[in-house]
Amino acid sequence: MKKLLLILVIAVVFFNRVNAQSVSACPLDMSDIAALPIFYSAPSHNTLWVAMFGFDLSSLTNNKQIARTTDGGATWTITSIPETMDRGGSCIYATDDNTAYVGLSDIHNVDGGAIWKTTDGGDTWTQQTTTQFSGGYLEYIAFFTPDSGVAFGDPKNGYFEIYTTSDGGSNWIQVPEANIPPIVAGELGNGGNPYGLAGDRVWFATSKGRIIYSYDRGATWSASTVNSSYGYMGVTMNDTIHGAAWKVQGPISKAFITNDGGQTWVGQNLSPSHTIDFMCAVKDVPGTFVFKSGAIYATTDNFQTNYLISNEYPMNGNTVLMYDATIGWTQTSVFESDSAIIKIEDVATGVGSVENTSAISSFSVFPNPVTANAALVSFTLDKDAEVTLALSALSGKIIREQTRSASKGNNAVIFDFSGIAQGMYLLNLQSGKRQASVKVLVQ
Fold first, then answer.
1. Do residues 298 and 285 make contact, with C-beta atoms less than 8 angstroms apart?
2. CATH architecture of 23-347
């Protein structure tokens, strides 16, 4: 009991300073780099690989430079792919802090595509093959395990050019046409980061509003249509079942939700309305996504509501990559020569400025992780209201719920965690149709 009283006293003192999400610029100096940060891969919490591709007007060649940080963006090393042909970069995937694969493609369809690999943090790079993607464009590389991966390319001879490997890329085997759904006339892939990967499953997006997906590490493939009139799509997945797709070109303020592993998709208008430039699912937290729309936003309820994370930096163009709910990455406008890498921290905590259709803000739990039989739940309302607090498993099953009256302004109530097993949960605060969620770890 004394421990709980001490916790509550501390919580009141620090009411407005706990558990706040934040963004910060990382010191990657690109002033002398004739390339832009385009594709990201994060194999661990503090490590990020950034593929910086661009055309150098002074040398009339395609630059292929790779930046890497292993300390959360505090310091960076930069290396170059020793490519002699004039291929451009198309994707990157890192399986650990030292091992990464970079895809290069030839837009002129002369030299074909190539996969380069490093196992020493980028100090040395080795081209894995000179024969793959001889007629197509290499769009994606993804790995299920350190050895098992897939590489996906544009159609060649009437079907998508897809390869799998089971030995870390030493050998790539082409998937037979019979295992791949027929293409739609004029269909291409939409390369780079907008893909889904969870367990043994992978999802890639195309230029005809479709998602091409595999449940068995790329051995066999199926296709589903999101919206055939939308053209280029992006796709991102929370887990093997839940995810979202969006149109990557044009002012469409709608996301498409799947709850069956990408077999079917249901449109969801954003509230408040925003045009999605790019987005990424928070893994293992269904319904939670971070997206860019001139600023950085998040949703915890499949876009029924969304809230502002930050508008401190100009946010245009591609790429948002969330490693998990505690850390993610994006960049300022990709079209600027002084583009900066931006680190996003503590998303899906429910803390932040909720947009004006929501009456809830400053929603937090203290302490978090929860180590006692109760914790202090703090939130702010813009008017008096009845609220419901519901603790649920990540699967969505409600474990404990309580309803009470709350007042306009700051509120602090005790939530009972007695008897709750150790693990990760979501605590949802709802007032009518307004809601916010915070991820809670019980220890």
1. no
2. 7 Propeller (2.130)
